[in-house]
Amino acid sequence: MTAPDADVVVVGSGPAGVSAAWPLAEAGLRVLLLDASEPGAGPGLAPARHRADPDHWKTRFGADLAAVEAPPDVSPKFGTPRARAARAGFPDRIGLSTAGFFAAGSLGRGGLSTIWGALATPFTAAERADLPFPAAELDAAYARVARRIGLGPPAPPSSPAARLVLARHASRPGRTGVRLEPAPNAVLDAPLDGRQACNLCGLCLYGCDRGSIYASDLELPALTRRPNFAYRPGHLVRAVEADGAGHRLRVETRGGAVTVTAPRVVLAAGTIATTGLALARLGLFDQPVRLLSNPAAAAAFLVPRLVGSDRPAGGLGLGQVFYRAGDAAGVLYGADTLPLDMLAGRLPVGRPFALRMARALAPALLLATCYRPGAQSRNTLTVSRADNATRLSIRGERTAEATASLTADLSRLGRALRRAGALALPGSTALLEPGADAHYAGTLPMGGGGPAATSADGALARVPGLYIADGAALPTLPATHPTLTIMANADRIGRALARRARSGEASR
Asked: Residues in domain FAD dependent oxidoreductase (predicted)?
């Protein structure tokens, strides 16, 4: 019998895959991490090089000016050339079609963490209530992940508009039920493992060449220094099949099809891709499963006191203020470092004037996102077989409940911000397309019933040795950004699997 290629194969180099891989590698297991990325991803953007480049407009808009025509009902971060490159090929290569749903995904090294908003906040006690394991386990995992990635206390906002609103809200909180606080971003304020502290250059969405913003690909060099860890990019996993007491992965590479074997496999390829592989392994074809996403909306707010202010030379191009309002949550961004094309497209004036107006007002503008719990989403994911190939399809629908809730939430936020000196900008509100939040969960829920459920430790029902470590395993999706919780859960799943493997449970 041929020896397995590893003790554990981890599929996916995003935050979940890397977080699961660490405890497995630290336990001394032979870990093989596969992802579909091609070697040699481009570097981040150096501010000096960017400003000296006469063609720097291509960084913001793309050589084909595609960013100018970016869809108006998705996040601005998806409109940059860097984001389009990270997402390139995702639907086609995994055989995905959608209807009424914006499917965000990446086959690149580090997954979507290379373009994420970096907000890293834990679930509240109420939001953890449906998780099928003790809260203390998650608290310990949060602490481990925070130490590993250099997550410290939230920094004060760099945006003058955000600073003013936060200060006035603290002095005049009122009874709006809205709580504002500095955004807890996964951005370094001190060097860590070769990464540099943030210098507030303002180019966050276009690529940080300092490694200040956490992305899971930044952890791969440290992992690969371990002799028991191997990383193979350019390996797109097409299927996970039974192989005696273990698993055989059918993998597509540039050099042709190969197989990889292991007694244990951890799927962490992102909720959509992971669900496709798991449902196909279970033989659950043409059986829709529920896909949770956060219904989302966006709006702009003007701080009149700052109209006419000079545009700052730099700043943080990520979230400035995090807020909660009942079971809704969201982020306020300073407009001075963000693409303004989508906002201009929603203003009730002609586009050329709208762009000039948005740019002139940018130092006084705050752009808000608002998220609702995933329970208010209505999406399904289905896996089918056609022409000897696996296909995925997602159908999304904006619900009346979510629309009414988002409208009420933005009104509530508007009242709180008015007390803090910011006014809602007429015509700026937009309901985002289902899926545009890029927060997906719940397809293979931990502790759930049914044929596609997983255990509290991520083990997939009826398939010993196959584990789910990304958002697909979360049984709930509150309004709080889920990435930090997904990483913490992947850490605890990897830790539990390492304990089993060391105790001799070969295929469990």
From this structure: 7-42
Judge contact between 309 and 160, C-beta under 8 A. Answer: yes
Considering Cα of 410, then 415, then 421, then 426, what sign does the dihedral take?
Answer: positive
Q: How many CA atoms lie within 13 A of 341 on its CB side?
A: 19
The torsion defined by the Cα of 279, 280, 286 and 290, in degrees rounded to 10, comes to 20
pLDDT of residue 308: 86
Which candidate, 221, 241, 240, 218, places its Cα nearest to that of 231? 221
Residues 6+ apart with CB under 8 A from 40: none
Cα–Cα distance, 192 to 150 (Å, whole number): 7
Q: How far apart are CA 328 and CA 341, in angstroms?
A: 26
Cα atoms in the Cβ-side hemisphere of radius 13 Å centred on 40: 0
| Residue 198: partners with Cβ closer than 8 Å, 6 or more residues away | 187, 188, 189, 208, 210, 212, 213, 316
Q: Which of 48-52, 246-250, 402-406, 459-463 has the lowest mean pLDDT?
A: 48-52
- The half-sphere exposure of 212 on its side-chain side, counting CA atoms within 13 A, is 24
The strand pairing partners of 8, in sequence order, are 31, 264
What gap in Å lies between CA 416 and CA 62, rounded to an integer? 38
Residues 6+ apart with CB under 8 A from 296: 369, 370, 371, 372, 406, 431, 432, 436, 437
- Whole-prediction pTM: 0.92
pLDDT in tens, 23-47: 999 999 999 999 999 765 444 444 4
The DSSP code for 356 is H
DSSP symbols for 409-457: HHHHHHHHHHHTT-EEPTT--EEPPTTTT--EE-SS-BT--STT-B-TT
Residue whose tokens read 């290569």: 93
What is the distance between the alpha carbons of residues 447 and 456, in angstroms, rounded to a whole number?
Answer: 6
- Give the pLDDT mean for 156-184: 92
Residue 41: is it exposed, middle or buried by C-beta count within 10 angstroms (0-12/13-18/19+)? middle
Per-residue pLDDT at 127 exceeds 80: yes
Phi/psi for 40 (5° steps) reads: 80, 45
Q: Which residue has the higher pLDDT, 467 or 343?
A: 467
